[in-house]
Amino acid sequence: MARLSDLKLAMGTSILIAAFIFGIFIFAILFFLQLDLVTGLIFGLGATALFILFQYLVGPAIVAATSRLHYLKPGENLWLESTVKELADKSGLPMPRVATVPNSTPNAFTFGRSAKGVTLAFHDGLLNNLNEDEVRGVIAHE
């Protein structure tokens, strides 16, 4: 099992590699457009800000579309809804929207812009293969 320090090292390395690739991209733009350093930095910061804004605005819709979510209607899965509500209340969090994903892998995930707009999604494989106590543990984790 991976230790926390190994995970932190892997995450830090991934961030550095991504920053390096982005830096090469900005350098290439500077080089091909023959821009000076200040103009290039302004361009790079502007491009970064636009990319982050795009991710913030469109990211949840992309996740919902690519995972083929099925949002539960009230009463469609009473046990799951009541369990999520109970654990959200105990945690002091607002009730998330609950959805299922037609996928046989045992997985669950949350996404959204803020605590008020979160969706909690469960793969069918998780709901079909874990017992109620195990699903409660997954809900508490998410």
Description:
The protein has a 4-stranded mixed beta sheet. A hairpin with a 7-residue loop joins β3 and β4 (119-123). Helix content is 63%, strand content 11%. The protein has 142 residues and is an alpha+beta fold. α1 (4-33) packs across α2. It folds into 2 domains: 4-58; 70-141, Metalloproteases ("zincins"), catalytic domain (Zincin-like), CATH 3.30.2010.10.
The total of beta strands comes to 4
* Low-pLDDT regions: none
Largest sheet: 4 strands, mixed
Distance between the amino and carboxyl termini: 20 Å
Range of helix content = 55-70%
- Give the second-level CATH assignment, the architecture of the largest domain: 2-Layer Sandwich
Quickly count the domains: 2
Strand-residue proportion: 5-15%
CATH homology group of the largest domain? Metalloproteases ("zincins"), catalytic domain
SSE sequence, one letter per element: HHEHEEEHH
> What class, by secondary structure content?
alpha+beta
Overall, the morphology is elongated
The DSSP helix count reads: 5
- The CATH class name of the largest domain reads Alpha Beta
Mean pLDDT over the residues: 86
Compact summary:
By secondary structure, this protein is an alpha+beta fold.
List keywords for this structure.
142 residues, alpha+beta, Zincin-like, four-stranded mixed beta sheet, 4 strands, 11% strand
